[in-house]
């Protein structure tokens, strides 16, 4: 039996971003000494002949690097937005995110139905 790899590294907070065929997870975890760090995981669903699997890539980000990481990320994103693609209205992508969240919520609600129970009304 596989040991629990997160033993002593409790998850404190988590956020998920769906981005097309990829999903990004932002998780805050605690060390045994109550220090905190962030893991950023990219998950891609890959289809195989016998089903599918998830390919995952993970980045560990420690508190001493938070500010440098955010500065580099913001600087890079702003460079793309303002220097390389100044004519693109990036706010249009916000609506796509809202639609994806609504679709996910609908899927989760429909998945709650009891298996094997036909809930559709039928008229004779």
TrEMBL record:
The domain of life is Bacteria
Where do the segments described as Disordered lie?
A: 101-124
Question: Which keywords describe this protein according to UniProt?
Answer: DNA-binding
Q: Where would one find the signal peptide in this protein?
A: none
In its keyword annotation, does this UniProt entry include DNA-binding?
yes
Q: Which InterPro entries match?
A: PUR-bd_fam
Q: What is the name of this protein? A: DUF3276 family protein
Identify its protein family.
Belongs to the PUR DNA-binding protein family.
SMART domains, alphabetized: PUR
Q: Which organism is it from?
A: Chryseolinea lacunae
